[in-house]
Amino acid sequence: MTDSFRIGRHTVYRIEEWRGGFSPPEALFAEYEGDAFAEQAPGFEPDFLRDGLIYGYLQSWLIDTGTSRVLVDTGAGNNKSRPGIPIFGDLESDFVGKLAETGYGPEDVDVVFCTHLHIDHVGWNTQMVEGEWVPTFPNATYFLPSVDEDAWNPAKGTYAQLAGAAVNANVFEDSVAPVIEAGLARLVEDGAEIAEGMIARNAPGHTPGHMVLEVRSGADIALFTGDILHHPMQIVRPGWNSVYCEDRIQAAATRRAILERAADEGARIVPAHFGAPHSVFVERDGAGFVPFYRANGRGRAA
Predict the structure, then answer these.
(1) How far apart are CA 270 and CA 272, in angstroms?
(2) How do beta strands 141-145 and 111-113 pair?
(3) β-strand 268-271 against 220-226: which pairing, if any?
(4) What is the pLDDT of residue 294?
(5) Which of 2, 38, 195 is nearest to 113 (CA)?
(6) What pTM, to 2 d.p., does this model score?
(7) Residue 299 pLDDT more than 60?
(8) How far apart are the first and last CA of the chain?
């Protein structure tokens, strides 16, 4: 059965698409310092570090409110040409089967929210049917960051200026444009309510229009942070960016602001790529932060 946790009255299911060794840490972190990473490394094994490689996941999150289903990020997708990052190209995953383990199928999803428009967050927006890319979730409204649509649309002038343009090749055409053309997309800006108690918040830096989904239910709050954090090392060192961050100064400032908020409010952080248990709480530690983990509830376990 798919992993799950609670946010107040909501049940959140984890839908796993892929897992594996992704890259050496020095190839992922732009500000990598060997001694600093080595000091933390024993605590990362085996869920976040294996055989010298950052160990990560492609995973989506289905929020079941009891009356609606909200899917956050949609992985890399199947049968998609990804010459800029072949590890996520031409996948043949059973994503729809994993979704079915929650008791729901693609037709039951009411809302899709993409934190940003990178390759591994929009892929299952579409699937190939009779030679055409069609929306995977035919009854859903797809909420996409307006700023990212403007940035990553190859028909617009800024696309070629982005550092990730080569890595993100083909993504807009096969995973974003078809849902816009089908009339299922809604481009959103900061403060947009995508469902009751669920607000999209600007969180730029990793991409120009990256957003975080804030989910409140009862006394609980969770922040679905996409790629604000790739790895718990970035909790210990908030200034460390991934090499895929477009604006590293802005990305680091956004990361610290999210961590400060999570620490102050006892919010669960739900990143896109974390290993088990796949979400995290944080608390302040001097000028920095430390992660801790628990299955449900707010704050540190007694």
Answers:
(1) 7
(2) parallel
(3) parallel
(4) 65
(5) 195
(6) 0.96
(7) no
(8) 27
